Queue: 2 jobs
Job 1
Amino acid sequence: MAYEEYVRKAIITGRPYDDLPEPVRQRLTQNEWRGRVRELCIQRGEAWGGSLARSACSEQDYYEQLLATYQAWARVYPYHLSDYVCRVVRVTPFRYYSEVLFLTLKEEKSYDRIPNFTAADMLRVTGIGRNEYIALMNACKAKRLLWRVNKGIARDLLPAAPLDVKMEPWWAVQVVNVGEAEFRELTPAEAQLLRQACEPVPAGSSSSSSIVAAHPVSSFDAGLLQGLYKRGLIYLEVPVAADDRISLPPLEGFVSNKTSEAGDESVDPFEPLLYSLFLANSSRLDQARLADILGVELRQLLLVTSLAIRLGFASKLSPGSSGEEPGFASKLSPGSSGEEPGGPQQQQQQQLQQQQQQQVNDVM
């Protein structure tokens, strides 16, 4: 056990194979080490260029394996890796979740086996929720013999295009690597938009809170953006900085499905941090202070907060605004704000909050 933990820490801290102690190298060949590095970096959702994975495999091989693993585990789309996954590989959230849905249908899994935040984002992107999934599964099984011999028919029943996506004015627009043939098919207005989005951002024009050097959504026509987004020609970044504060309104669209178990390697590392964010956030705290309180890296918290905002579970506060939001348990229990202290509903909320805190402790 101590040996395995040592190897894990060595990979996380970026220690090269040649710097490992001789007894460790005698037990672990360089090829085995590279395999361990690739597996752990994928499990942790690390970027290839910022981790030890760059010494273990090529960038293309790494992200292909990461996407296959994420889809098999039904994790949330890796938005934090969009610069390669979306821009280079051209795997959009819609394409990603279509594959997750297919794999889940193919194995005839219950909808409850889809992790909570994956289910919420899948509904946002594809329009497939619990009822729609059950209808899809019933439609597949209704084909009887054909379904038993060819699970691929499930693909024909999936949505053909993504839903319109919510775009906040301050979100950043990024352009993928557009091919020459694709560019020729654009309208003059679409081509102009892509050219403008690729231009450098003028100095001083971006928000002080922004960490993404890109033009905001507010700079472009909303209809053109939706069309380009659905065709996978642009993607969106949700910039969050250390001095940003967020508010957590009553949760809508939260799906209570699969419960994570401690030690499960398929658990998205963002999941426990999202629960921690929901439990500990205060509109008075900026991200830097909140990271200190939670004892996590600021970089990780910024990514998690960005995801929470994208999913609609949080909103960024403008400078100078104030207001205190209810706790996480209250957000999951609409209509409880007028209850007398100590009432049955409040006791249920406290129990739920304790359960969620225990889940965070178990996973972390």
Job 2
Amino acid sequence: MLQDEELLSMFLEYDRAIQNYTRFDDWYLWVQMHKGTVSMPVFQSLEAFWPGLQSLLGNLDSAVRTFQNYYSVWRQFGGLPEFYSIPQGYTVEREGYPLRPGVTPQTQGRKTHTHDSGHNGLQAAPKGPETGS
């Protein structure tokens, strides 16, 4: 995508809408598709890729702030729950078990682009469902 100007241009247009409608205090909330109003103030583990993508696009300050939010949840629970209520600070029970991208691989990507080793402890985290063991 980053090598194709047309795809990058399309993504940047979507990113403006994402930043405008879903971003609150460096969290990205679920919003109503037609109105852009918040439908669920939750973080889901499937969103763990976002700081890595922000880093690839050069949005390093935003990537670090978003990562700090996600990492605070990791520290609270020893891993990422499938769903986390941002206002209440606890997990949300939902049916199903979505496959999720690893926060650890995206941390390595962010570290590569920022040369920041501030989250090295994450790489030594116990193995669990996210790593398949």
